[in-house]
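anyone seen this seq b4? input:
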Amino acid sequence: MAIKLHRGDLPADVSFGSSVAIDTETMGLNPHRDRLCLVQLSSGDGNAHLVQMPRGPYQAPRLSALLADPKILKLFHFGRFDIAVLEHALGVRCEPVYCTKIAAKLVRTFTDRYGLKDLCRDLLGVDLSKQQQTSDWGAETLTDEQMTYAASDVLHLHALRAKLDALLVREGRTELAQAAFSFLPTRARLDIAGWPDTDIFAH
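predicted toks r here
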């Protein structure tokens, strides 16, 4: 596994093919208050690129172009949060997208465990460490442990997607999942606009 750290934006010579796994690290869970600190990306080849974001205003044209590219599928786990954070920070709408958490909720109805650690263990036999989850991502210099943790959040999403796609086909829920993925950027935009806890479809 190779982990490459970039500051401010992706280098011009980095490409990810037709799909890229993405995750973010922030100072907290409120995009209006807590700044974006790190964006992790992987093409599923066992390597990860980490883009450390300086304090705003954010200027990352190559990363923004990747996120908005309609020919590249963006893979997330709990994409609702990451998509909202990226749109709020960079002003770019991520499409098309795939969320392993949504897929898991549609096919793994026998459990209430949908965390990335749970899915990697159950579907891939991979044990992820979450020790650095609540560390200070705003630090100017990230530790090796932080970078390893951050990379682990994107290294397995392509393999998870393959497993979950097979389960979606088996359960006849592929079309339903795709409709949910298509709505996800709008759900994220509703969160940013002020409806994070409101079910707008409720009576």
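The CA atoms of residues 14 and 49 lie 9 Å apart. The chain has a mean pLDDT of 95. kinda curious what u guys think
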